[in-house]
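In the design runs reported in the main text, the only information available to the sequence generator was the tokenized backbone. The following block is the verbatim input for one such run; it is reproduced so that readers can re-run the procedure and compare outputs position by position.
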């Protein structure tokens, strides 16, 4: 097919020999060297697919889909046949599938149903340098599995920049294969100081390059979709005002995770002749997606990072400095086809002294409730969660927080053992809170409604313009004839909207007229169907099939639905302050919060006060601490949960009779501070 020869091809025999002789190996190669797209084909050709599939994990959904397409194209087959992909709620594989790209989350779920992963002969843990939460857990699980399934199972861990020695040590000193990159030199240019606005600074730099530098595409890193859109609007305006004919044509393209596939295809397609492309991308272009033709990289040195604080239960999505490893990766994107340039919009001293050497792994900055439930449900022999084989240990605080969350939703008992309920929860591809709510809904005869709510919450947003601009979202919601949630909250509104859509025979025009995202609505419908199937399949044995499916159609009350949700969201309840409309989150997390302006209006009493108790889906700090996706609940439902919280004994939950050694906690706390701040200054002051 005349495909390019990639650096990895020269190492085919070395790789195949190493894999033949060892159960595990680490493979390090520059981004673009062919790890993701070629390794699987290499093993396929070498005959490994005779005894099982080749599974390649990706931390990101888009990457899994995009590389599966690419590999199918290279092999001249249809996606879903010899080459397929599997991401949450979307399985494009068949019995024919020999090479399967899947998210790390999907492979983790497969462990639940087949702990030894027998369908695979080779598992490639790709993009391990990203250190996503799920990849880290898989590393620990595969570490146990390789010795069990020796010699049939081969595991390859690949990375662009990973600390290979550390990974090799973790896997019993397995060999490391290095594929030298075919990288051209990249000249690094630093700014004297940080620009006042990095967005304006980046736009200006892009324009300067465009008017004065020779042809070559420009890759500009921004931190999120919002910013990308702003930068593109600015760039377009500026480009318009350039004198016609003074420089070459330009097309400006966005690239981010939730971009519709047809828009992404424009970035990977052939660029028009004599035209410069400016690609404005999130961090996704740092390693997981490679755009060919880039010669200039503009790096403001920032990334949007989710950070969970177990003390407050709050997630924040903060723009933080990238690490040096990331800065090097970004620069490398400029030297793939010929010598390039990287414009760092920060001083060299900042690079040397302010950036962390490596990014804090996600496992040290995420809520671990889902992860711990998953590990517990695997019932690994002789395992204490606190001693699981983590490549980097999460803090004790995070683990204890996870245990207490699980206890409140009845997933584990007083001694920390998983309950029957917990096992059912783990089987649902949902976070523990929603899983618990679905099971409660079944008992309260409102499963159909709860499925709808869970499905809608699994989408990015069903509203147009949302969730970025609170005000516009509000406008969109009040627009047209959308139902209003009857003052009970967002969840009820989601249900009403979905039901209205169903009444309109799932008409897509109807969505458009009502300011709803067609893609999200279709996705919700699909997710709802899948969740329904799983719930019915998992229902208690012995009940006749017919009765089961009728339970989906039963129309429970909105009250029952809210009660079911309350069972699931016991960790996410908020109590209104006595005399005004602020809320305080309950439990040890007594964070003061406000309801997010995008929320659907709640009923107020004669004094203008909001409901006394609400549950929320998300506690997030943007400009203020806000709760989002809010729904009114009743005090009598909250009471037993409060009692449970009061009587909780965290030592018991952790399954440890002796108190945890204080030294360990101290070290963990230090790690936590590092994880929370992600900045070098704080790091050095705590050490
Ligand atoms: O994984 P790694 O970064 O080592 O490389 P890769 O993703 O396998 O990419 C190898 C080559 O395939 C690069 O030149 C990519 O541009 C190309 N590729 C592509 O054209 N379309 C994709 N969806 C993925 C990769
Ligand atoms: Mg790759």
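Verbatim output:
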């Amino acid at each position: 097919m005349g495909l390019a020869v990639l650096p990895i091809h020269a190492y085919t025999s070395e790789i195949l020999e190493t894999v033949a002789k060892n159960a595990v190996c680490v493979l390090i190669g520059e981004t673009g060297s062919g790890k993701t797209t070629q390794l699987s084909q290499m093993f396929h050709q070498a005959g490994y697919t005779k005894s099982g599939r080749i599974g390649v994990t990706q931390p990101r959904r888009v990457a899994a889909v995009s590389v599966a397409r690419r590999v199918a194209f290279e092999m001249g087959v249809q996606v879903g046949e010899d080459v397929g992909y599997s991401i949450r709620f979307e399985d494009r594989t068949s019995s024919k599938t020999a090479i399967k790209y899947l998210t790390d989350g999907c492979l983790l779920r497969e462990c639940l149903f087949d702990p030894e992963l027998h369908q695979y002969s080779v598992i490639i843990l790709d993009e391990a340098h990203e250190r996503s939460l799920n990849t880290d857990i898989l590393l620990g699980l595969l570490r146990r599995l390789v010795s069990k399934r020796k010699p049939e199972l081969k595991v390859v861990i690949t990375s662009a920049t990973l600390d290979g020695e550390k990974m090799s040590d973790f896997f019993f000193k397995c060999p490391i294969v290095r594929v030298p990159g075919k990288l051209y030199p990249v000249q690094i240019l630093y700014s004297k100081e940080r620009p006042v606005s990095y967005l304006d600074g980046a736009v200006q730099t892009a324009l300067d390059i465009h008017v004065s530098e020779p042809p070559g595409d420009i890759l500009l890193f921004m931190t999120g979709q919002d910013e990308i859109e702003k930068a593109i609007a600015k760039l377009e305006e500026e480009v318009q005002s350039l004198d016609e004919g003074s420089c070459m044509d330009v097309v400006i393209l966005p690239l981010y995770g939730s971009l519709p596939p047809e828009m992404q295809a424009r970035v990977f397609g052939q660029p028009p002749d004599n035209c410069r492309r400016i690609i404005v991308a999130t961090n996704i272009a740092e390693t997981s997606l490679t755009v060919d033709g880039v010669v200039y990289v503009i790096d403001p040195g920032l990334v949007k990072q989710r950070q969970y604080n177990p003390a407050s239960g709050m997630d924040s999505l903060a723009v933080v400095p990238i690490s040096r490893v990331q800065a090097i990766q970004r620069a490398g994107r400029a030297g793939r086809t010929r010598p390039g340039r990287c414009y760092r919009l920060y001083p060299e001293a900042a690079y040397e002294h302010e950036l962390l050497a490596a990014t804090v792994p996600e496992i040290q900055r995420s809520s671990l409730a889902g992860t711990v439930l998953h590990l517990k449900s695997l019932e690994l022999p002789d395992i204490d969660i606190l001693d699981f084989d983590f490549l980097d240990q999460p803090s004790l605080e995070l683990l204890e927080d996870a245990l207490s969350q699980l206890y409140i939703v009845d997933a584990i008992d007083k001694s920390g053992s998983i309950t029957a309920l917990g096992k059912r929860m783990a089987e649902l591809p949902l976070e523990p809170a929603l899983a618990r709510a679905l099971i409660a809904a079944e008992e309260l005869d409102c499963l159909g409604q709860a499925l709808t709510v869970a499905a809608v919450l699994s989408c990015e947003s069903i509203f147009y313009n949302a969730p970025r601009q609170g005000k516009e979202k509000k406008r969109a919601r009040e627009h047209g004839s959308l139902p209003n949630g009857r003052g009970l909250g967002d969840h009820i509104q989601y249900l009403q909207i979905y039901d209205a859509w169903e009444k309109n025979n799932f008409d897509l025009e109807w969505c458009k007229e009502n300011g709803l995202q067609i893609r999200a609505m279709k996705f919700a419908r699909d997710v709802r169907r899948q969740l329904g199937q799983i719930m019915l399949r998992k229902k208690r044995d012995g009940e006749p099939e017919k009765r089961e499916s009728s339970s989906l159609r039963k129309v429970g009350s909105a009250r029952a639905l809210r009660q079911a949700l309350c069972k699931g969201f016991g960790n996410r309840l908020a109590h209104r302050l006595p005399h005004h409309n602020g809320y305080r989150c309950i439990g040890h997390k007594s964070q003061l919060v406000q309801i997010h302006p995008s929320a659907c209006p709640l009923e107020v009493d004669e004094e203008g006060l909001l409901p006394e108790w609400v549950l929320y889906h998300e506690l997030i700090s943007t400009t203020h601490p806000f709760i989002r996706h809010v729904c009114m609940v009743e005090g009598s439902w909250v009471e037993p949960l409060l009692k449970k919280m009061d009587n909780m004994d965290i030592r018991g939950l952790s399954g440890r009779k002796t108190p945890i050694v204080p030294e360990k906690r101290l070290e963990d706390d230090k790690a936590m501070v590092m994880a929370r701040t992600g900045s070098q200054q704080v790091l050095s002051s705590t050490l």
